[in-house]
Amino acid sequence: MAVTESAVAPVGREPERADAGHEGILRRQAARESAARTYARALPIVPVRARGLTVEGADGRRYLDCLSGAGTLALGHNHPVVLEAIRKVLDSGAPLHVLDLATPVKDAFTTELFRTLPPGLADRARVQFCGPAGTDAVEAAFKLVRAATGRTGMLAFTGAYHGMTAGALEASGGAYDVRVARLPYPQDYRCPFGIGGERGAELAARWTESVLDDAKSGVPLPAGMILEPVQGEGGVVPAPDGWLRRMREITAARSIPLIADEVQTGVGRTGRFWAVEHSGVVPDVMVMSKAIGGSLPLAVVVYRDDLDVWQPGAHAGTFRGNQLAMAAGTATLAHVRENGLAERAETLGARILARLRVLTEHFACVGDVRGRGLMIGIEMVSPDAPPPIDATGPRPPAPSLANAVQRECLRRGLIVELGGRHAGVVRLLPPLTITDEQTDAVLDRLTDAIAAVASAAETRGPVARMPERAADPGRLPGG
Predict the structure, then answer these.
(1) Among 45, 117, 412, 420, which one is most buried in terms of CB atoms within 10 A?
(2) Coil, strand or helix at 352
(3) What is the per-residue pLDDT for 170?
(4) What are phi and psi of 292, to 5 degrees?
(5) 31 within domain boundaries
């Protein structure tokens, strides 16, 4: 079993000759690194090799990685086309750091990026290379629409996550600032209006209209609206397509730029190359990062040319010219497009959802299974809590059970993420290259983990077994 952080708590400074193995590395991390670290606490492993879906730790254990760098690794770890693209740049002697100068590598990336953009945006788009993280792209997008409109306020949604810098935090669900007006984000399972479905989405849209059109709402006409087509950190909550179209209509009618945050949903993750394509919406601005860098740091803002009012130097970033990331990104974008991996994600995601939804019939602690493409969430709830008054609403979230599922998954060689408003959602973000055999192995291990956690709680029936189980669950298919 992997060593927990409590087992490697620092007991004082260690000499440099200390153990260089698994436990020694974890011990030194706990002694030296910030208390703000997160993944290292829940996943006390030391990766030393990786390929595709599989990761090998310093202790010799191998894992199926359904975290994928929080969605960064669209093609999994060390995909051959990505490695080849990086080596080609290194072997060419090309500069690796060029600020915003034009290079063949950048030109190839921009050409491939524009080839993938939603129709209606690509033919009149501009791209801004900013800092290397998604939060940098969000900040640049805010700055862009404020300059273009002359207004300052922003519209954002409950449950949102847009990054960790000041402006991005203001627009995220866990923070509050008077410059950002928070609007209800529709969902079926925990509908803010208690009804879900099309009616709940319609009420959310009407709320937005009322806030904008009521002179006494306290919300002046904003500089822009930012939304996620699927809320990731918010618990894998897909926006209803009809509601997203209403947001486009509402913002267009009032000359409010619509910003789509595609940092986690982009590059085929949800079953379309860009998640807004499910609804046919063409935003005014798109922020992108994670997968577009092919596993390396890269972030961009793509927007309508009439918003391009910046003066030279109005927005910059020292590392906006990362040539290795652009080469890796070009290879990733092209591979996803040429091999139909977005369509594959849609088909495989539907299959995964269908199999996981069976769990809600067998385990009272599994409240909801939802997602889009290969962006999947399983919400854990408290089975012993009394049902809602009307006996139809959801039970309270159970972050302790979600944590327990994550631990049990790790024991079985499966890496998963947590999220949601109350950190009660187990999240799957496998690479788009995951095979059918690997998918079965992931589902087998996840089901066993949930069954182990549910064994200590009230269940609706006997433990369910997923069909077509792998003969040897300890074997890593394709590894």
Answers:
(1) 420
(2) helix
(3) 64
(4) -70, -15
(5) no
Residue 6 resides in a domain: no
CA distances from 221 to 151, 206, 256, 295 (A): 7, 16, 8, 38
Output DSSP code: residue 48: E
- Cα 253 to Cα 191, 212, 239, 249, 280, distances in angstroms: 26, 11, 20, 6, 17
Domain of 70, CATH number, reads 3.90.1150.10
Query: Is residue 175 situated within a structural domain?
Result: yes
Parent domain of 444: 45-77+342-454
Query: Can you give the pLDDT at residue 449?
Result: 97
Residues 6+ apart with CB under 8 A from 313: none
Cβ within 8 Å of residue 185, ≥6 positions away: 157, 158, 159, 160, 192, 204, 227, 231, 234, 237, 239
d(C-alpha 262, C-alpha 276), whole Å: 8
Contacts of 257 (CB under 8 A, 6+ apart): 145, 148, 149, 223, 224, 225, 251, 284, 285, 303, 304, 307
Sequence letter at residue 419: G
Boundary of a domain, candidates 309, 338, 367: 338
Element (H, E) at 49: strand 47-51
In a domain, 33, yes or no: no
Query: What DSSP assignment string belongs to 255-279?
Result: T--EEEE-TTTTTTTTSSSSGGGGT
User: How far lies 295's CA from each of 103, 115, 135, 330, 452, in Å?
Assistant: 20, 20, 16, 11, 34
- Backbone dihedral angles phi then psi of residue 64, each to the nearest 5 degrees: -90, 120
Phi/psi region, residue 133 (left: phi>0; alpha: psi -120 to 50; beta: rest), is beta
264, two tokens: 């986690």
Q: What is the CATH number of the domain that holds 177?
A: 3.40.640.10
Q: Report pTM.
A: 0.89
What is residue 159's predicted lDDT score, i.e. its pLDDT?
A: 85
Contacts of 35 (CB under 8 A, 6+ apart): none
Q: Do both 292 and 229 map to the same domain?
A: yes
**Domain count of the chain?**
2
pLDDT of 233-292, one tens digit each?
A: 999 999 999 999 999 999 999 999 999 999 999 999 999 999 999 999 999 999 999 999
Q: Are 47 and 410 in contact (CB under 8 A)?
A: no
pLDDT number for residue 164: 58
pLDDT digits 0-9 by tens, 108-164:
999 999 999 998 999 999 999 998 888 899 999 999 999 999 999 999 998 888 865
236: left (phi over 0), alpha (psi -120 to 50) or beta: left
For the chain, list residues with pLDDT below 70. 1-19, 163-178, 387-392, 457-479
Are 310 and 284 in the same domain?
yes
